[in-house]
Amino acid sequence: MTHHKTLRIQEISTEQHHEFIAEQARAxxxxxxxxxxxxxxxxxxxxGWFDNDELVAASLVLYRPIPVPGLRxxxxxxxxxxxxxxxxxxxxxxxxxxxxxxxxxxxxxxxRMGLPLDLRRWDADDVRKALSGGxxxxxxxxxxxxxxxxxxxxENTLVRKGWQKxxxxxxxxxxxxxxxxxxxxxxxxxxQRADRESPEFEQAVEEVxxxxxxxxxxxxxxxxxxxxxxxxxxxxxxxxxxxxxxxxAERDNFTxxxxxxxxxxMHALNESETSQCKVLFAHYEDQLLASAIYVQQxxxxxxxxxxxxxxxxxxxxxxxxxxxxxxxxxxxxxxxxDLGGVSATLxxxxxxxxxxxFKTTMGADVVQTMGEWDLPINKVLARAFTMYLExxx
Length: 393
Prior knowledge:
- The chain is an alpha+beta fold.
- It has twelve helices and 16 strands.
- Helix 10 links the parallel strand 13 (300-308) and strand 14 (336-342).
- It is globular and about 60 Å long.
């Protein structure tokens, strides 16, 4: 039986939470204490874990009331990419122990938690080749370039504590995708990052381009010579983004988010001292061809949303915006440029295979995160909630 320190859990201020995030090498913007402004239907708390008076772990927790008879006043406690702590200094057991009674005291019938650790990573080329080869079923069958023993130990702890492991699925499920596409970025000194014209900065961009397959690289280079004007906008420019985004949603047959969501997202993340959110545009003359929403915090830059028109497709405007986001990530000193989720499937006929193909041709490695684990606090209500989700499809 291992003995760990007993930690005290309590609500912390936004300032304390920001200060803690600023000390972490990696912290997702989904853990930013200002992020809940984009989620009006959820109640939020910034929680801190204290060893005596020292803050050693922190987490944003969102509580979602569930509109099901019998669940009034009860909620799902959701922790995306958290809690944040140093696993070399703090044991997971010590974090979980006070979390469960705290969530229960807040009326939570279930906790859904996605710890911010990566289990393993596969090389972009290996995944791409396996996808076209057609001899493998799922990405975990491949040899990873990196495996994290700390994360695997944490899996064992969660299983021992009765948490339910996320199932390996070919399809995207609710919440954050377990498999993520990330481009590793060369590291530059602050002086080198500050000047895009410096030989070192240009060399770093070249290294990222060399990770791409020949088609992606050629199209990206072509986009820099195709008379596009690349600009970054503010809150007033979200309307232009929204128009193009709605056109994209209609063409690609997905349900988009309202303009108010993007406005609150930009407003919130730019008010935080640890993050930045930009809306980027690629124009040819007076015509808007592509737009993207980019977020950066700590060691990661994220391509969060993209939109484009079919016009002037040979100018490769979306490629130009990808390159701009890579440069912004390098300027911020980020170690990763994150292109978002991919499926675990290597079946090239699967409808999500194209997404994996595109992201790996961009030079993105595939990372398996720990995924989102569930702990039913009240088993009956948790089962009712699961059935409610299944009925909603």
